[in-house]
Amino acid sequence: MMLRTFASMATPGVFPGLPVKEIPGSHGLPLVGSLVDRFDYFVTEGAENFFKTRIQKYKSTVLRVNMPPGPPIVSDPRVIMLLDAKTFPTLFDLTKVDKRDVLTGAYMPSTDFTGGYRTAVYQDPSEKSHGKLKAFCFEVLKMSHPRILPEFARAFEELCVEVEKEFEKEGKAAFSGQVDDLIFNFLCRALVGADPVAPAPGSLGTEGSIYVTTWLAPQVAPIASSGILPKVLDELTIHSIPLPFALVSGNYQKLYDFIDKRGSPVLDMAVKDMGIPRDEACHDLLFNLGFNAFGGMLIFFPSIVKCIAKAGGDFQREIAKEVRGAMEANGGLNMKALECMPLVRSVVYEVLRMEPPVPLQYARAKRDFMVESYEAQYEIKKGELLGAYQPLATKDPRVFANAEEFVPGRFLGEEGENLLEYVLWSNGRETEEATADNKQCAGKDIVIMVARLLVAHLFLRYDSFAVDESSSSAIFTQLTKAS
User: Fold this and answer.
1) How far apart are CA 10 and CA 406, in angstroms?
2) Nearest-CA neighbor of 83 among 102, 107, 64, 108?
3) Distance between CA atoms of 466 and 479, rounded to whole angstroms?
4) 3-state DSSP call for residue 34?
5) pLDDT tens per residue, the chain (483 residues)?
6) Which of 481, 483, 468, 443 is nearest to 148 (CA)?
7) Would you call the peptide bond into 72 cis, given omega within 30 degrees of 0 as the criterion?
8) Are 357 and 300 in contact, with CB atoms under 8 Å apart?
9) Residue 66 φ/ψ, nearest 5 degrees
């Protein structure tokens, strides 16, 4: 009942019963305010606490802040943040907002990183080429569908061989250190239809995941922590000076050549059926494969492993029983078996709720309108940049009971299905469909399927596992093979 009430309150215009307030918060002095906010965001508070302290200070989930990177990389870092489950979906309403060049907020990497093209994710649906490029993405996914299950199984087996070898030698093994090859090789084999490791024209050997990681790094550096340098050095370097494409141009060219030489069926389809120039299709496919899919899964998969490990032995026995029973009843790990694993599905959604791989989303107001939080309504002006920090929306206690806890069975049953409306990881509600006319992730259903496959394969091969809970990475400290 509470969920239906929240949804029904989202009506256009001025909302009766709630006061109209000025949006609180401060951008501070020019330049200084931005640098102070950035230092707090990266060094003294961290992202989530950065927002929580300001919510507490201003007694509002709608507020003004400066978002990284700010000057000198971005001249105007001012953003209105929407920090609850009720205001967050404003970013999906294309009657109110424009999605042009705001994937990463006010900062946008140089198009040098994508062959001089603005890829579809940086375009608004109102732009003519957006629909073509997204339709191309849908067709690539359709063509890849028969390859997904076998190629994921193949890549998972390759990962396990390396993990078990490391575990036998060291007594521990870094899942996070091996999963990049699983993801990259699977995506190339499934989406491009070619093995990047196999000797052939354009072969990447065993270096493919390294090439894509090094290409990603300078694009996200201004808005992320390096994880290598001390945080203060990050501030003085990667958050202040954009890294040039020249540093990774050779690696990007190798990735491009692989798709160009080995991905002819999908690229020919783009040219013949959709009228997309071959080089643009190649750059767009590479961005979707490398930035969207690889980058997202590289964060998401270790989160799945860590959450399941921390849930404990009793839960792992329960999920192993479900996986093995479904497989035996359906003649193997196939789509029918996967649909008979409701707990696996619930776990995947719960990890997305707790630790969404892309926590920040943005949009720019295309007209004046009112936005309503739980306590008040606020006027948004045309041209203002809006942002939202997803974990605060998907851990909103007004929607989710025990919101800060990992509850594996949260999305089971009718009540659990109703909660899927508030799972927002894909730039849209999980209950909505991606189309060429919206900005929802084209591969959202494939991502969920592959994540479920990961969990299923884990419990077909292992009875239980544990990770080093003191590490931010997924490092196996216990790994018991299925008997």
Assistant:
1) 28
2) 64
3) 7
4) helix
5) 344 334 334 444 666 789 999 999 999 998 999 999 999 999 999 999 999 999 999 999 999 999 999 999 999 999 999 999 999 999 999 999 999 999 999 999 999 999 999 999 999 999 999 999 999 999 999 999 999 999 999 999 999 999 999 999 999 999 998 999 999 999 999 999 999 999 999 999 999 999 999 999 999 999 999 988 999 999 999 999 999 999 999 999 999 999 999 999 999 999 999 999 999 999 999 999 999 999 999 999 999 999 999 999 999 999 999 999 999 999 999 999 999 999 999 999 999 999 999 999 999 999 999 999 999 999 999 999 999 999 999 999 999 999 999 999 999 999 999 999 999 999 999 999 999 999 999 999 999 999 999 999 999 999 999 999 999 899 999 999 998
6) 443
7) yes
8) yes
9) -100, 135
What is the DSSP annotation of 373-429?
A: -SS-EEEEPTT-EEEEEHHHHHT-TTTSTTTTS--TTTT-HHHHHHHGGG--TTSS-
Token digits of residue 237: 């370097």
The predicted model scores a pTM of 0.94
Distance CA 24, CA 287 (A): 37
CA atoms within 13 A on the CB side of 213: 14
Distance CA 214, CA 207 (A): 11
- Residue indicated by tokens 């093994």: 173
Query: CB neighbours (10 Å) of residue 337?
Result: 19
The sign one gets for the Cα dihedral 198, 201, 207, 210 is negative
SS3 369: strand
3-state secondary structure of 71: coil
In whole angstroms, how large is the CA radius of gyration of the chain? 22
Measured between alpha carbons, how far is 408 from 414 in angstroms, rounded to an integer?
A: 15
Residue 360: strand pairing partners: 389
Distance CA 137, CA 139 (A): 5
Quote the CA–CA distance of 480 and 183 in Å, as a whole number: 23
Token pair belonging to 431: 């209950």
Structure tokens at 88: 């967050």
- For residues 109 and 116, is the Cβ–Cβ distance under 8 A? no
Instruction: Give the alpha-carbon dihedral of 218, 224, 228, 229, to 10 degrees.
Output: 100
Tell me the three state secondary structure of residue 206: coil
Question: How do beta strands 97-98 and 475-481 pair?
Answer: unpaired
